[in-house]
Every structure is written in structure tokens, then in C-alpha cells.
Structure prediction request, 480 residues.
Amino acid sequence: MNRMLPSVENAQTIAESDAVAVERTLAGDRDAFRVLVERHSHNVFRLAYRMTGNRPDAEEVVQEAFLRAYQKLGKFEARANFGTWVYRIAANYAIDRMRQRKKEEARKVEPVIHEEGTENDPVTLVHDAAPTPERLAHNMELRKQIEIALAALSHSERTAFVMRHWEGCAIEEIAAVLKSSSSAAKNTVFRAVQKLRLALQPFVVKGTQVRAMGTES
Amino acid sequence: MKHMTEEELIAYREGVAAQRAVIANHLAACEECRAELERIEAVLAALDTLPVPNPGDDYGRRVWRQIAPRLPERPARWWQAWFEPQRLGALGTVAALLVVAFLTGRMTKRGPIGNDVANKEQIRERVLVVAVGEHLGRSEMMLVALSNAEPLNPAQKQVNISAEQHRAEDLLEENRLYRQTVLMEGDANLASVLDELERVLLDVAHSPEEVTPAQLKKIRQKIEARGILFKVRVVGRELQERQKATKPAPAQKDSEESERNKA
Prediction:
């Protein structure tokens, strides 16, 4: 799990400082909201990018999440964590965006064109200092397969997987976004990993036989 | 030795396993399960190589510059949330029903003052009965559509159920509202059916938009196993009966007026 979690002391300081910024915003100091935007934008962008899989949509999700957070700030409970709250808003909007995107793509015939930039450069996937052509080709193929496998997940599955595996969110947080029970959210995480495994295992561990699980030896 | 299931190993790896210590102990002793866990981890590690672009150090400032002109002077107060378009839609339906109920009440014969409270209760019940009845009707239509869903083209291997899925999402919101109201009104039986319906709606809302015929069969079997379509139909009929039973007596304005004229 890659979520960059601050230390307990830091988290407490941030939460207290967030609470002050929320209070000041509610009192009419609009600039106080700027602190919250600048502090949480990167984290929300990371979540949004992993959910939508592309930068323009992710940036739109970030903007919309903060706009919605501002509009709904009156409903924000003082005891809650602003970071978690805006995360939830972003995840909900990202689900809407993914649905919308799917409909748009269904109407188009052309395949999705990914944005250009170093983040899509297969070289960035290679950790070896001197990538061989074979390794490069394998990484390009793997990256393609990962994108296909993630795109094949349902919106709920992708959300649950991103929030749990990459963002380290609690099952209760995921359940709140998916509007489901905790056990249903847990099952969704499981289903997502199972599907990803089915799709990616042949490209990850070639020639390895998967045993029938839950069997006795 | 009984091995761990894939579900248990994934739950363990993702930190959501209920019996973490039991799985850890088993893994310590079972080479085969350890190997299986490693295979799961290899896939997850490959997924972790998917990079996230760095939006830049000034990203937060850029976001602020982009949204600042669109922010109202002050954030909305909690009560303003009631005026969001989604809520307004639901409120509009309830308001329309209340107006109908009010007008129906006005057209009925006015009884003694002591009956006013009973009449108000009756009207409120009627409104709820009409609203829940319509909700069940819409849910029934969605479930029937799902039961009859087929690929558009026989050559297609997937069935698109996105329309039903979106309807289920909308119905889910309504269902929660009605279940809570019905429960407050003390109708435990109706609340129980709505609760069961909510579970089915949740299942449908969280299904993939495109499913294989086997997955669709599974969803249908789940619906059938709960007998929810039958229950929704039966309760729908019951509500129609209740609606008829609580229907006010026809207005006797004309006859009263002629009596007055005679006098």
C-alpha cells in the first residue's frame, strides 16, 4: 500500500490545522480554504488518477472535489477528518466521471489516446539502470495489460481496489463511498484482486501453475 | 492439511482478514500457501509499477487558481443542502403527493372537529402508501427488465445491464428514505420487505455494467432465491388495496347544496 501516511503527531497537527481552516472558511474567510486545497490536492490527484487512469479526468476530479467540498462545508462535521472527507467526495465524483467516460467511449470508434509525457514512457517502468530491449518490451506489454485489466474492473471494483490497495483506506471508508456494507466492500476488494490476478498472472509469473485454492494436500 | 483459500490470502495481503493470526500461523507452516501468497504478491507488485504522474510542486496553487473564481463568497449552510437538485427532485415528488392528498382531503365531507386528527393521520398514511406503492412498481419494472436482459446481438458474449444498474442506484436512494419513514410509522412488515429490496438493489447497483450470461444467471438466481420479485408484487397489491380502503368517501357537496337551496 502506497498511501503516504504522516506520523501520528503530524496527522494530529494537520487535522487540527484543517479544523481551524474549515472554521475560518465557514466564518466567511474564503482564503482559509486555500490552505486546505494546497495541502490536500496532491493526495486527491493521486487517488483520482488511479481511479480514472488519465490525467485530464484526474485533474477535473480534483477541481470538482474541492468545489463540492466548499459547497458542502456546512455539512462537514467538526470532529471528522477533512482529508478523508474530501477523499470520499473525490472518489464519488471519480465514479461518476468513469461512468460518463465509458458512455462517451462507447460512442466513439477510436481507441483511447493516452496523454503524452514522461509518465507514459515505458522507460520509467524499468528499474534496471540499463534496460535491455527485451525488458523494455516486456514492461511495455505489462503496462498495457495492467491498464486493460484495470479498465475491465467495474467502477465499484476499481474504486475499492484503489482505495484499499493503493490509498490504504479503511474498509468502512470504502463502504461509505460504495454505499454498501463493510462485508460487501471487503468482497468487492477481493473480487477486484481476483480479476486482476486472473488477467495479469500470465504476464507476471510465466510458466507458474496456480494451484486450486482451499484444497487439501 | 487444509490450505487457505484465495479469498483468505487476498484478505490477509490487503490487511482486511478477520483471522489474521490464524492465517499467519498457517503460512508459517505451509510452504504451498506461502508460494501462493507470493504469486498474489507478484501480481500486486506488478500493479504497483504503474506510475502516477507528478502534477508538480505548485499543483495545489494551480488548483486554487482554477477553482477560486468559481467559489461562492461563503460555503452553503447545512440546510441549503436540502435544495440540491437531487434532493429537490425527491422533495418535489413528496410535495406533489402532499398537494394531491390535501386537495383530496378538501373534497371529502368534513366531519366533526374531533375527527380532524384522524383525518390528518389518514391522509399521511395515504401519501406514504401511494409513494411506496409507486416505488415498488418502479422496482418491480427494473427487476423484470433485469430478469429479461439479453445480449443485443446473439454473437455478443456480454450483456449490458448498465440501464438497470443506474435505475437500481436511483431506487436505492428512494428505498432508504421510504424504509426509514415506514419504520418510523411502525410498519415493521413493510420495512422488512423494503430492507430485503435494498439488499437486492445494492447487489444490482454494484454489479459490473457488462456481465457474462453466467454472471447474469447468478444475479437472477440471487433475486429468485430471495423471492423479492414475488414479495414486491404481493406488497404492491396490498398497498393498492390499502389505498382503496383509505380512499375518502365521494364528496356530497351537490346534495348538501340542494338541501340548503330547498331550505
About this structure: The beta strands of chain B are 159-160, 210-211. The longest helix of chain B spans residues 116-147.
